[in-house]
Write a structure and sequence with these properties.
about 290 residues, TIM Barrel, DNA polymerase, domain 1, Phosphoesterase, 5'-3' RNA exonuclease activity, Pol/His_phosphatase_N, 5'-3' DNA exonuclease activity
Amino acid sequence: MRIDLHSHSSVSDGTDSPAAVVEHAAAAGLDVLALTDHDTTAGIAEAAAHLPPGLTLVPGIELSCAHEGSSVHLLGYLFDPEDPELTAELQRIRDDRIVRARTMVERLQDQGIPVTWEQVSAFAGDVDGRDVVGRPHIARALVEVGAARDVQDAFDRWIGSGKPAHVTRYALDPVRAVRLLRAAGGVCVLAHPARGEGALTREVPEELAARMAEAGLNGIEADHPSHDDDERARWRQRAAELGVLVTGSSDDHGELTGRRLGCSTTDPDVYAALVAQASGASPLVG
């Protein structure tokens, strides 16, 4: 079995629709795919409706968390999407993303960059902000108007942490996020702990990983495309010390990451152990 437990669609900051993501997953020879859009499960229904025969879909999410000013991401799987406390937190995160993104656009405009909210909304897929608007959408707008060479350059010059248009946003405490997902019947995995996203490249502190494990963390995504061999080995060792599972995933964002579904995968026994520990939802079989 080939299992990829981290992917994104155009519902958040990927470039492909949920339907296209599962089609690409089947073409890549995957048997199991988790759709883990940022702070939303809005793409799960579409992905499930277009699930090719033989492909299993794991309903998931990537929660935005923060620790001492740095980004920490938590992958959640097979939780109850109607859980009241979790639902309320997700709505608060999404609402603040809209406020943050609008403010960043205004800051760019104040500096003479002709980026508009309409451009950013078009990349996010909805002008009313119902989809999750993130910095990658602003970055793509910056590239479109010629203010950046590519998405990474947009982060490095304009919207990364400490850059001229950066704005902080509401994010969950990682330990609380673990407890929320477990209380909703889900399982959770610390995403790409050796590398952050954009300009936030601080490694997750080991003491934080330990506190997350104590709160119920199920695994660590040691095998990630951004991790080199030493980082993978170090976080595999850390997972063993904490008594949690090790996963591998592509963190595919469609065109933005070269459609790399399946470039890193999860052991079938690890996947089975995660499913066995979840009670909020079940995998969906095409």
